[in-house]
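Task 17 of the worksheet. Students: predict the tertiary structure of the chain below and write it out as structure tokens. Keep your answer in the requested format; marks are given for formatting as well as content.
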Amino acid sequence: MNRIVEKTDLSENVVKMVIEAAAVAEKRRAGQFIVLRIDEKGERIPLTIVDSDKKKGTITIIFQVVGKTTAALAALRAGDCITDIQGPLGNPTEIENFGHVLCVGGGVGVGVIYPIAVALKEAGNRVTSIIGARTKDLLILEEEMKDASHKLVVATDDGSYGFHGFVSAVLQNLIDAKEKIDRVFAIGPVPMMRVICNVTRPYGIKTIVSLNPIMVDATGMCGACRVSVGGQTKFACVDGPEFNGHDVDFDLLMSRLRMYLCQEKEAMERYRCEHGG
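Model answer:
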């Protein structure tokens, strides 16, 4: 059992939790994730490790309420326990001194890009971060990203805060200004990551994305998380979750993510009816 130490609502439907998981906290590195199960009958869901504290034996996760399991997780409080946590899983981010790196995060993906930005800065890179959300109220981790970066640009789709437009437009502006960019890390909604890759591809700027396909066992056994990268089948759980975005078949990824939308919607509706949501 893993006890929830702290719970914070960061924005609408986005929750931060600090959870006791000493073994995971001891070994985790930027880019890795966990698979948790709320109770013995619960489904297994993958969530990125945002931070950890070895001394306290805790890990931090940030997640968005999008379905039944994340809704049930968000309903828990500090002091409650989660049945089990498996991790750290996946390959850690390749961290070295590349030079000038851009860390681009959209929506809840800002929580995923944050530990990567921290690690890249610690490795001696000059880190420029671009974070975005649909509106100011949905923006998360601005101060944390500012501390993890040498320069931070904030964008909102509706112009309610910072740059009025998409994070991809900010990236394009930097490229147009002849800014030397050695590597881009982009994490967020699949359409956002695809657009970022389309922006960087003509300039030959290597762009790393983190993929979030449907995942079951997270050991490479079930094959549910298969993606196509460079024309080859890869399993996000053991080969990723990070890949060269220029090689990713985003159309296939998006179609697989939509496979169970009807079942997910039905499960969420039943959950709300049962819990008065």
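Marker's comment: The two ends are 27 Å apart (CA to CA). Residues 261-275 form the longest helix (15 residues).
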